């Protein structure tokens, strides 16, 4: 049996490989190819080499670098807030208080609502608030747009991260905590020296998720601010979308595609770097 | 050995997919005119896929398509793009195997993007049925688009409310008279004598901002073109921007909503305010008739020109024109092209088709067999023209890009929230400098 497996395994992986090729490798290769072309519909394309990439940095009226600043600032703030919040919630909901399950469900629920709907609801809420305190509405107010996005994402994602942290915290062996107690460690010391190292793998996952989520954020951005005013609150994904669809004409599609490839490389590099550094701190049980 | 097998499999898979990615579809398009295709498709087995631009006419189009299928057995699929997303939808639909056979462009600027997809319609019946050849959209001696609806916009007025406020439409024949009536209504509202405002909210949400960044912006462009004797430009001067400011001030200062809240107001908000009698004036077009006539009697509504205090106001009519040109996808199969041309012709010549377009959709169609529309705004336009008023043409089809409109829209919204001179300068910059830079970008294909 084992011998047969060894010999025929390529046949067994073929279905998955085929699905992967059709669903991922093919579109990716196509996208890469299109980033070197000018086109409007993909049945008529014109090869232009690296022209699109050069244009993306020198000629583009909505440079990716502008929205990169906004995206990086947003990512930093939201990674810290979402993970801190999620972790604190997880700590609070692993103490065996009554109603824990109800709270866990409630905190998780925002995650089930689609991004566009969320963005719209928060747009109405935040505008109502801004109107009450007499400040310009979110479409005219980049600061409100930024913090609105942060609040929205925290509200949506904290519950999700909380679930992962809860799973991590519950798998910390009871003996370790007891041993720490006997050694005279305070609750704070136990948390920092025992629990946090033990849940490092959860932290890796959560930071990785929030990082890539923040960078790839699109729906919420579109529905909450549409990038208004100007393109000041447009994150990278929305910037690419605007390049692709904002103007008609051959030149924009390829340019948008090139920006998407650049964007993809940035996200991959960041995620890899982040994964490597956090991995080092994980503790083997 | 095994490793090599894996490597070969993977490389094979990669190569196959990569090659498939590169293999562009080299479908050659023959240069035969659409009419030839029509002749060859007598068996009538093609089908029609119409990508409709007008959400307000969605139901009527679906019904008409169904009626056509029942009558002829030819399948007609109508898909409507959501408001403001036509170009995006069209682009993605065109990438599909079942691409639209019938779509539309908004004028010369829109056509530039799609000209290589449009069949020459000069020999078709539907083109020959136009009341004037001017309604064909031409490029290089080819007719690539056919206008299928003529529309008007202006300030829709609730005559009943205007009377309650002690005024009548006959008083209003210039910007100054409009202004005095409007400001009188605002004063009366402040004093509690009337319960309604002069204008509906000038919402700058995406569902409503086109009324101002596109339609209202047409007026300063129109007067500048008239003065300079041109019909398009690569650099606008903004000669009449002060007039634009005057009318915009009037809209935002005498409305149901405060200027700072306008960015969140939608098109539906304004429509409901007008329907509920909360405002006398509502800047919109003849396409609103179906929605408004459900609640307001024909005799109580009319449409007056948008006076901005420029040109010969005594002779100014409604803004009348079209941004709806039908185009036929020449890359569709011959049968489909033939079926599409038949369908178009049926819509504008048959009894059912013309009736549906006039009554259900409220359109005035520029075809010989057209049924007279019940639309009061359309009738108003006809009456105006008969009385010697000169319609304001639609020059917004020459605006360089959607981005230009967005830029003007954002600046207008900021100005509405805080009407300072500095903010108006931002509008001017977006209007004048934005035009030049966007024109360059829009024509950057090279």
Largest sheet of chain A: 2 strands, antiparallel
**How does the helix and strand content of chain A classify structurally?**
mainly alpha
Number of strands of chain A: 2
Number of helices of chain B: 18
Could you say what the CATH topology of the largest domain in chain A is called? Answer: MetI-like fold
Reading off the top of the CATH hierarchy, the class of the largest domain in chain A is best stated as: Mainly Alpha
Q: How does CATH name the architecture of the largest domain in chain A?
A: Orthogonal Bundle
Query: Which H/E pattern describes the elements of chain B?
Result: HHEHEHEHHEEEHHEHHHHEHEEEHHHEHH
Q: Any idea what the shape of chain B is?
A: globular
- Look at the structure and give the CATH class of the largest domain in chain B: Alpha Beta
| Secondary-structure element series of chain A | HEEHHHHHHHHHHH
The CATH topology of the largest domain in chain B corresponds to D-Maltodextrin-Binding Protein, domain 2
Helix content of chain A: over 70%
Structure overview:
By secondary structure, chain A is an all-alpha fold. Chain A has two domains: 2-52, no CATH class; 60-280, MetI-like (MetI-like fold). Chain A has helices at 2-34, 51-58, 64-92, 100-108, 115-132, 142-170, 174-182, 187-198, 200-216, 219-224, 236-246, 250-280; strands at 37-39, 45-47. Chain A has a two-stranded antiparallel ribbon. The longest helix of chain A is centred in the N-terminal third of the chain and has 33 residues, at 2-34. Chain A is globular, with a radius of gyration of 23 Å. The two termini of chain A are 34 Å apart. With 446 residues, chain B is an alpha/beta fold. Chain B has two domains: 31-150 and 322-368, Periplasmic binding protein-like II (D-Maltodextrin-Binding Protein, domain 2); 153-319 and 381-442, 3-Layer(aba) Sandwich (D-Maltodextrin-Binding Protein, domain 2), CATH 3.40.190.10. Chain B contains 18 helices and twelve strands. In chain B, the strands form three sheets. In chain B, strands 6, 7, 8, 9, 10 and 12 form a six-stranded mixed sheet that branches. A four-stranded antiparallel sheet of chain B has the order 3-11-5-4. A two-stranded parallel sheet of chain B has the order 1-2. In chain B, a hairpin with a 2-residue loop joins strand 4 (136-139) and strand 5. In chain B, helix 2 crosses helix 14, helix 3 runs antiparallel to helix 15 and helix 17 (402-417) runs antiparallel to helix 18. Chains A and B meet through helix 1 and helix 5 of A and helix 1, helix 4, helix 5, helix 17 and helix 18 of B.
């Amino acid at each position: 049996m084992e011998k047969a497996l060894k010999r025929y395994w390529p046949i067994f992986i073929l279905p998955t490989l085929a699905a992967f090729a059709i669903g991922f490798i093919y579109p990716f290769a196509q996208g890469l190819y299109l980033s070197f072309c000018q086109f409007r519909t993909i049945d008529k394309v014109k090869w232009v080499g690296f022209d699109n990439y050069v244009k993306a940095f020198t000629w583009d009226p909505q440079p990716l670098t502008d929205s990169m600043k906004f995206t990086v600032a947003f990512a930093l703030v939201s990674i810290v807030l979402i993970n801190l919040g999620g972790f604190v919630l997880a700590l609070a909901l692993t103490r065996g208080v009554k109603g824990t399950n109800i709270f866990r469900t409630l905190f998780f629920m925002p995650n089930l609502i689609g991004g566009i709907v969320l963005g719209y609801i928060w747009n109405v809420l935040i505008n109502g608030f801004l109107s009450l305190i007499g400040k310009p509405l979110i479409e005219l107010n980049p600061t409100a747009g930024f913090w609105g996005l942060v609040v929205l994402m925290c509200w949506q994602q904290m519950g999700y991260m909380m679930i992962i942290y809860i799973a991590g915290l519950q798998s910390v062996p009871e003996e370790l905590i007891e041993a720490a107690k006997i050694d005279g460690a305070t609750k704070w010391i136990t948390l920092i020296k025992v629990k946090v190292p033990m849940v490092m793998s959860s932290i890796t996952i959560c930071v990785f998720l929030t990082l890539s989520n923040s960078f790839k954020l699109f729906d919420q951005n579109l529905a909450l601010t549409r990038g208004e005013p100007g393109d000041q609150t447009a994150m990278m994904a929305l910037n690419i979308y605007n390049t692709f669809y904002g103007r008609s004409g051959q030149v924009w599609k390829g340019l948008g595609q090139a920006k998407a490839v650049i964007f993809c490389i940035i996200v991959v590099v960041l995620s890899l770097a982040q994964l490597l550094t956090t991995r080092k701190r994980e503790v083997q049980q | 050995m095994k490793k090599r097998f894996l490597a070969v499999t993977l490389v094979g898979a990669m190569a196959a997919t990569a090659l498939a990615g590169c293999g562009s579809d080299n479908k050659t398009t023959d240069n035969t005119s659409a009419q030839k295709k029509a002749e060859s498709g007598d068996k009538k087995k093609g089908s029609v896929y119409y990508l409709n631009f007008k959400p307000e006419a969605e139901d009527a189009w679906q019904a008409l398509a169904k009626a056509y299928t029942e009558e002829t057995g030819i399948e007609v699929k109508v898909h409507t793009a959501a408001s403001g997303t036509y170009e995006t939808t069209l682009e993605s639909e065109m990438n599909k195997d079942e691409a639209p056979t019938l779509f539309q462009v908004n004028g010369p600027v829109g056509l530039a993007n799609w000209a290589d997809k449009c069949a020459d319609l000069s020999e078709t019946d539907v083109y020959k049925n136009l009341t004037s050849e001017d309604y064909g959209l031409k490029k290089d001696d080819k007719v690539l688009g056919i206008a299928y609806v003529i529309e008007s916009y202006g300030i829709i007025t609730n005559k009943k409310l205007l009377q309650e406020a002690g005024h009548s439409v006959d008083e209003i024949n210039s910007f100054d008279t409009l202004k005095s009536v409007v400001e009188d209504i605002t004063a009366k509202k402040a004093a509690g004598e009337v319960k309604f405002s002069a204008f509906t909210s000038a919402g700058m949400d995406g569902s409503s901002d086109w009324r101002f960044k596109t339609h209202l912006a047409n007026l300063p462009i129109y007067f500048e073109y008239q003065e300079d004797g041109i019909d398009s430009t690569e650099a606008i001067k903004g000669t009449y921007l002060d007039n634009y400011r005057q009318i915009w001030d009037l809209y935002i200062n005498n409305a149901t909503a405060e200027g700072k809240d306008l960015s969140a107001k939608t098109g539906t908000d304004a429509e409901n305010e007008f329907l509920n009698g909360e405002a006398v004036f509502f800047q919109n077009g003849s396409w609103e008739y179906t929605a408004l006539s459900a609640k307001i009697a024909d005799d109580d509504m009319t449409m007056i020109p948008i006076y901005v205090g420029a040109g010969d106001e005594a002779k100014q009519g409604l803004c009348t024109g079209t941004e709806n040109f039908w185009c036929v996808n020449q890359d569709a199969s011959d049968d489909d092209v033939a079926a599409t041309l038949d369908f178009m012709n049926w819509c504008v010549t048959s009894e059912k088709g013309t009736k549906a377009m006039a009554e259900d959709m409220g359109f005035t169609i520029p075809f010989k067999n057209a049924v007279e529309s019940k639309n009061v705004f359309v009738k108003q336009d006809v009456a105006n023209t008969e009385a010697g008023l000169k319609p304001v043409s639609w020059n917004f089809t020459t605006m360089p890009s959607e981005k230009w409109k967005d830029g003007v829209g954002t600046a207008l919204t900021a100005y509405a929230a805080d009407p300072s001179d500095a903010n108006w300068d931002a509008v001017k910059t977006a209007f004048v400098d934005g035009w030049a830079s966007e024109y360059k970008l829009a024509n950057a294909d090279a």
